[in-house]
Amino acid sequence: MDDLSLTKNQVSKIQRSARLIKGFMALIVLTYALQFYQSGVIDFGEVAGAIGTLALFRALMLSPMLLIIPFKEWFQSKITFSKASIKYLLLAFVLIIVRGC
Question: Rounded to whole angstroms, how far apart are CA atoms 56 and 66?
Answer without folding.
Answer: 13
